[in-house]
Amino acid sequence: MAIPSTPFVFESSVQLAQSVNSLESALTQFGKLATSFETPGANALVSNRGKGFDEWLANELQCYSPLSGDEALLNSTFAELPQFELEPSTGSAGSSLFEHPLSASSPTPSFEGVVAQMPAEPLELTVAKLQRAAALLNVPWSPELEVALRAQTRNLHMVSPREPTPSPSNVARTGQMSKRSHSPETEQPEEILAKRAKNTDAARRSRLKKLVKLDGLQTKVTELTEINQRLNTRVAILETEKNGFLIKEAEQNARIAQLETKIVEAHLALKTRQL
């Protein structure tokens, strides 16, 4: 078996990448078209449940409006058909020919409920579908292309239905019910008496602790007041001693001044005698 050259392998890989991109774009366009055609049909199906064939036909004509190029053809086709008047359905028996048998008794479900009940089915791509899409796009089919496309489809985002969240009213009701279940009215008298005895013992112990603490604080206050009185007397004694020292200092300063004046006078007398 001959081994292909490097340029041929490169060209085949480039062609494979181009074919993968073209198939991806085709699949995305197909998904957009499917979603655009799927939404009005589902709405019409849900809204016309329990109504007659006439209203379903009218809603289908309103949902799928014809294109501008095909209006003449559709008008000519509908002109040849016999005309029937579309009467609104009143919900009573016999209002339409194909009325649902449970429409009078059961309420019509909403579109959100129907969508929530629909199971989320994964996207399945078979080999036949992939080959058909490749043939429509004129892309050569190969096993490598199939592997690449399946790897791309595995990464598609799957939409899961939302779980209903509990409303605040339900939460408040459950809280009130739990409080009522634990109310003291449902307890037995023996348990109530035991709880009361425990509460009285705890209150008595707390009062004793408070009294002991108050006695200790009172003794500490008396000791501190005695110490304060002693310190005040000591301060008074020191103040009197300070005043005595100040008086002695003033007397000594006056004595020093007198001696200085006498020295000055004696010095002047000696000078006069020498002259």
Order of helices and strands: HHHHHHHH
**Main structural class:** mainly alpha
Beta strands, count? 0
Radius of gyration: 55 Å
The stretches of 5 or more residues where confidence is low (pLDDT under 50) are 1-9, 38-42, 44-48, 64-74, 77-82, 84-107, 118-123, 157-161
Question: What's the average pLDDT?
Answer: 68
Shape: elongated
Alpha carbon gap, first and last residue: 154 Å
Percent of sequence in beta strands: under 5%
Helix content: 55-70%
- What is the count of distinct domains? 2
Q: What's the story with the biggest beta sheet?
A: none
Number of distinct helices: 8
- Oligomer designation: single chain
Secondary-structure blueprint:
Layout: H1 6-47, H2 53-63, H3 71-80, H4 111-117, H5 127-136, H6 143-154, H7 168-181, H8 189-274
Helix pairs in contact: 1-2, 1-6
Describe the structure.
- With 275 residues, the protein is mostly helical.
- The chain is built from eight helices and no strands.
- The N terminus is likely disordered.
Key words describing this protein structure:
275 residues, mainly alpha, 2 domains, 8 helices, 70% helix, disordered N terminus
Care to give the gist of this entry?
This protein has about 280 residues and is mostly helical. The chain is built from eight helices and no strands.
